[in-house]
Specification:
mainly alpha
Amino acid sequence: MAQVEEESQDGLKAGAIGFVDALVIGLNSTSPAYSIAAVIGALVALAGVHAPGIIIASFVPMLLIASAFFYLNRVDQDCGTTFSWVTRAMGPWAGWLGGWAITMTGILVVGSLADVGVSFGLRGFGLDDLADNAVVRQSLAVVLILVMTAICVAGTEGSAKLQNVLILLQVLFLLVFAVVAIYRVYTDDSSLDSVKPAWDWLNPFAAGGTALTAGLLLGVFMYWGWESAVNLTEEVEDSASAPGRAGIWSTILLLVTYVSVGFAVVAYAGTTFLTDNADEEEFVFALLATEVLGSWDWIVFFAVATSAIASTQTTILPASRTALSMARRRALPHAFGHVSHRFRTPDVSTWAVAGIAIAWYLIVNQISENALFDSLSALALLIAFYYALTGIACAVYYRKHLTESVKNFILIGVGPLIGSALLIWLLVEAIIDLSDPENSYSGVSWFGLGPPLVIGIGIALTGVLVMVYWRFTAPAFWDERPGVADPALVNGKQR
């Protein structure tokens, strides 16, 4: 298989971080506080008190795909993850598109995360006027992206230490909020129409078919990002198993966090408050914070701020490492494969991702703030695509080993394929939903379609054009042929 040695002669720093560090990075990449803040209002508007059940239902495809990540990482510890695995299993064309999707998700979302981090951080300090000033907020968001990028380039160990601090603060803030909310519900001290929690809330099917479908789309966004731990596989101790385990445990811990906070939010606020304020996006959490904590509402502001800031950094990691992996295989220009001799991190690809993300954030904001939200809606399409592709690749790459045991058949074959089928179904539903301009934040028509779908199609077509151009400019990568998992590696040996 064609490899390029000179651009990464030092390689990424092996053993730079451990399992716990990878786990924390996987958790922070999902931006838990920000994700639940952005989604809970819309979930309740769709499913009422059964929102926690939707959160559980959304967990199922994520866990099945996390299993695929674990087993594929076991036989190929490549920081390009989906790109490398799909290429090995299904060929270079499918692999390239998977890598493109991962890289573009990072570019689409980094600016928005930085914007939320700045906005909530300023509000936490009582600087609401500055948070409402677009020039100030966007300028600080750009500075934040540059700072987080510099930390990423300066070394994975430093990134991990910062992430450890941020996750502790985030979990502490969320825990305080949830405990106070539940306490006030059971002492009948809620300032809103509180509802006592019930086990029936965990039943997603009680919400109805349409609510379940739309809710699962939101749920995919909530859980997305845990695989960042696996993108660091070349830099994690015990690279054959630790990154994959970190990915699986990330999804489990996210489930516990989301369901706990979801119960607290629904119980305290009831359905009316959340439904009436669903269009406030993440700011519904800010409104609720004041109701629950009074003058201590800054706790929730900082929870969301630390969540978004942490994810600003960790979202750059998978995009940059995927670009690095693609360059090493000659699937992208040589320069993206450069590794800093001093820090042993992919400096060129990291700065490139950050630069393009900043440009996207500033340009889209000039159109409108709603256009930025529309670009985030397009994320669902890219996420569902590359997750589904990974699940299929797992079954295909292991196809000669699926009948060796019941464990292999279920965890490596059937499970990932079911997860992929669910995500493909959600992808189709998302395309249908987003084709209607009325379902977009902007509420306007672009070429007769909703802006999020146009953005998604535009990204896909751009990817195809770049791929075809690169195919004829540097054809070496396209000489690769799909194969099957090495029996020795399947049995646990490391590459």
